Amino acid sequence: MATAKKNLSDLELVKLNNPSKIKIGIVVSEWNKTITERLTKGAIEALNENKIPEENIVIHKVPGTFELPLGAQYLLENNLVHGVITIGCVIQGETKHFDYVCQGATNGIAQVGLRYNKPVTFCVLTDENEQQSIDRSGGKHGNKGIECAISCLKMIHLKDEVKKPSSNIGF
To answer: Is 97 a catalytic residue?
Structure first.
């Protein structure tokens, strides 16, 4: 397990050009609400640390993790944000439903980001039990909401950087 006995969620400051102009969407699953609220809190904390104004953080709820891609798409197709953090939690049950929801959400979230050419980060916990989700939403393994917010900001910064012409390109 990659995060065994590790807290990888240190807050990090991202080099941003004019963070007060950046708008971030957060799409949150209502399913496993206790966990997703903790992840959302971590994401907002990381955005605030990186000087994203509270009024530039748009939060919308969707019924479950499977609906996250469409929620992100709604924000992006209306050009409301520079990037989206998708937050969900799917805990393994006794049926294959877990597999279908996780696969659908994973593929959908990736496709939305590629379609709109904007970062859509994946903060979906796919754990075997509730304790693992607690451990990753502010527990002993940190808060994956923080990590996904930082990833979103880094990708916004990368997009901004590669748009600038460079005389050092050798082709």
So the answer is: yes
Ordered by where they begin, the domains of the chain are 20-156 (3.40.50.960)
Q: Is 59 left (phi over 0), alpha (psi -120 to 50) or beta?
A: beta
Strand partners, 126: 90
Residue of 60, 82, 97, 141 with catalytic role? 97
Q: Residue 159: pLDDT above 50?
A: yes
The pLDDT of 139-152, averaged and rounded, is 95
Task: Check pLDDT > 70 for residue 90.
Answer: yes
Axis crossing angle, helix 97-116 with helix 68-77, rounded to the nearest 10: 10
Q: Phi and psi for 16 in degrees, rounded to 5?
A: -120, 140
The model's pTM is: 0.89
Q: What is the spatial distance between Cα 151 and Cα 136, in angstroms, rounded to a whole number?
A: 16
CA distance 168 to 8: 34
Q: Which of 84, 107, 66, 64 is nearest to 153 (CA)?
A: 84
What mean pLDDT is predicted for residues 29-35?
A: 97
